[in-house]
Amino acid sequence: MYFWDKHKTITGYYELLSAEVCDRYGLTQMEYDIRMFLHNNPQHNTAAEIVKVRKSTKSHVSTSLKNLENEGLLERIQSEDNKKHIEIVLLDKAELIAGIVWMIAGVNVARLGVISYLNAESDLGRLAYSRRYL
Q: Do residues 72 and 92 lie in contact, with contact meaning Cβ atoms separated by under 8 Å?
């Protein structure tokens, strides 16, 4: 039970942070998650890899990728060798959002005092601590 309690706390904090960015840029939670996933994992740059690694449904990933492409945040590039292989590349506008995400995360960590209830030994605790004092 302890793991799931901590998981719920961390998930709730993640949703709190992402809600501000989603509202600011008109993104759904899934679009935000995929955008951040591509930013943090550039080696997984196809829709199939996003579905496989994130355990998301194909339809949600496909819809979100289409919306992100329409908003000018990513581009799909078809392989010349294999027409079925389409790589996804984040555009500069999407990279700008990633910088804003880290800035907002740092402000929210300091404002909410999240460090006090996160274990300082955990990766998330160290991340929160480093963002607060940068």
A: no
